[in-house]
Amino acid sequence: MQALKLYGKKDLRWEKAEEVEVTESDDVVIKVKAAGICGSDLSRFAKLGPYVEGMTFGHEFSGVVEKVGKAVTHVNPGDRVAGCPAFPCKSCHECEKGNPARCEKLTVLGAFQAGAFADKTKLPAANVLPIPDEVDDDTAAMIEPSAVVAHAYYRTSMQPGDTVAVLGCGNIGLLAIQWAKTFGASTVYAIDIDSNKLTIAERVGADVTILPKEKPAYEIIQELGGDGVDVAVESAGSVAASAEVLALPKKGGEVVFMGIPYSDVSIKRFYFEKIVRNELRILGGWNAVSSPFPGREWHTSIEAMRSGCIQTNPIITHRLPLEEGPAVFERILNQNEFFSKVLLYPTTS
């Protein structure tokens, strides 16, 4: 079996890995069909390094069940599945309260347990979800990031007819646009400094695209006839966007932070005062799980993809063999070409 293993910062290797076997009664061994590169994978690769040296990387994937433990009853060999990569401890205070996303000891596939950038991977049965025939393997590989977005939106008080601004149109932002529409948003503003991303944003349903080069996005939204949006989503994970998003909601509106900046965030007084004077509600959206595990985020994502409400094909820009992983991670960082979602495929699939 072959896998991509992370040994250090920018040290990702395509090499032989141990065969995956059933060792527990609830184990499900899955032959990987498609695996996606997440923004967190890029940060781990370039800035943070591995959790465990030489660990098989990757957590977004779809596949086919190969083997199951004797206690597994809801899937069988040959079934098409997606995998929830989160492992809450189930015993901390937050887990006992029914908040697995806030687990004090939460780990993720590819961190301390071999991940999905491999020919095969393994999950407990509770983390394995059957997928319908209408959801293809590429789409199923993006159920996890879709569930991340749905989880965050479920935390808001969004109502049909509300207006939404999505700041940052990477993969999460492009899914956030579609989920806003699915939740009934009347108008969705897509904001980014990359025109390529805005082109995709328009394809997936954004009503208005904003390239804030000449003036701030909040001014453009006001000029278009609004006093701000009901819900503003920060999905860029940048230091600047983490402050600028505070100027987008109307008085009494909400801000949802989904992106994670990897530097300290300094907020100018102008933006900070928006929180206080506009009485904003500030929310964080973390991970993709809730109770009962893995949560409604997963089931609604699967249904939204089955029904066509969530489209992933416009988001996918690259489909490559898994062994090209080390090279494509470097290519993404070099920024000499445009990348949105990259899917990797084991050669044995």
TrEMBL record:
GO terms for MF: oxidoreductase activity; zinc ion binding
Keyword Secreted included in the entry's annotation: no
Domain Enoyl reductase (ER): 8-344
CDD domains: sugar_DH
Keyword Cell membrane: no
Name of a matching Pfam family: ADH_zinc_N
SMART domains, sorted: PKS_ER
Keywords of this entry: Metal-binding, Oxidoreductase, Zinc
Cofactor(s) the record lists: Zn(2+)
InterPro entries tied to this protein: ADH-like_C, ADH-like_N, ADH_Zn_CS, ER, GroES-like_sf, NAD(P)-bd_dom_sf, Zn_alcohol_dh
Family: Belongs to the zinc-containing alcohol dehydrogenase family.
Protein name: Galactitol-1-phosphate 5-dehydrogenase
Source organism (scientific name): Salibacterium salarium
